[in-house]
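Justification of resources, computational component.

The compute hours requested in this renewal are based largely on the per-chain cost of generating structure records like the one below. Each record pairs the submitted sequence with a full structure-token output. That output is archived, and it is also reused by downstream analysis tasks.
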Amino acid sequence: MDKKDIFLQRTKEIRAKVDKLYIYGAGLYARNIYVILKGKEVCIDGFIVTRTEEGKELFGLPVLNADSVIHGNVGIVIGANSLNRAGIMEKLEQSGFDMDYVTHGTDYIEKDSLRYDGSPTMQITTRIGCSVNCKYCPQALLVDRYFKNDKNRQKVMSIDMFERCLNKLPENARVSFCGMVEPFLNPACGEMIKMAHRSGRIIELYTTLVGADRKTLEEIAGIPFGYVTLHVADRYGYAHIPLTEEYYELVEFAVNYKRPDGTPFINMCNAQAQPDERIAQICSGKYEVLTALHDRAGNLENEGLLTRRTPEGKISCSLCGTDFNHSNLLPDGSVLLCDFDYGLQHVLGNLLTQTYEEVMAGSVWEKIHKGAMGDLSEDILCRRCSCGNNIA
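The structure output for this chain reads:
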């Protein structure tokens, strides 16, 4: 059995032995794991977190303080990414919890190569302006702020600019084609992916396939990506993906493609809401289509979106700890703190005119780190972000 099968079997075994089964966590991973377990008819009684507000609910289930429940006859599914899992495991062990009643949802939805190991990541926003224009994506804010002071600012990333910036990245840097736009809306995206692969770096891809064609997809599908997420069309049209025959054929190719070593091209599928009916059929038996969504660090408002506020204390990022090195490259070489910074609040520097080390050690980064370490006079995006976590 693979890790997914082992996780589901162990979780069902624990469920049969305990009075209640909780998911430890209330963020993106926890929500996705809940949807998966519900689909597998595994009953969850609620969510637990280290600290919570009284009366809070998620999916109509209570969100409880961990200390109030872990001493009963309960089982726990860890619903946090690998960066936060260690702290949860340490707390449970120190509390004397029977670790035989713990399973790891991370094993179901997170690939080993995606786990944070201290390596920096540079996300690539290949152009400004996305025709997919998802309901839960602050595109208008990004376009307004990007062109606010210069209507002629470079809109589409050139292959030359990408190469120059790529060559400045540390050798261990991941290159993630996601950013704030569908990457294939830049016609040069396929060539950029191949260039990044030739550089020897780990590559990630987050795509709707809008703008891609079969030839490009066939050329890159065999590349050993670190992670590939396919964002599919939903049945309400929240993501403006043209439902053409070509689109369905591309999705079917991506979902079914196996690399020469037998591994799948796609690691995860998600959507803005329940998937389009035909997409659901294509993915059936292969992928759950996950629908938990962020509020993009407070840049969107909707009660169904994942949100978190950490107004006080020291904080870290679920994706990159206290290194804050999960950055975002814009078409003109500007580097943002991350791909949640749609309002361009934290522009770290520019890779065309600076080295990577200068960008990541500049005054803006120092203010971010100072704010994260507890200086509340620094207004940082991280305190309004669902990836922000309190630390000791």
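The first strand starts at residue 20 and ends at 24. The first helix runs from residue 3 to 17.
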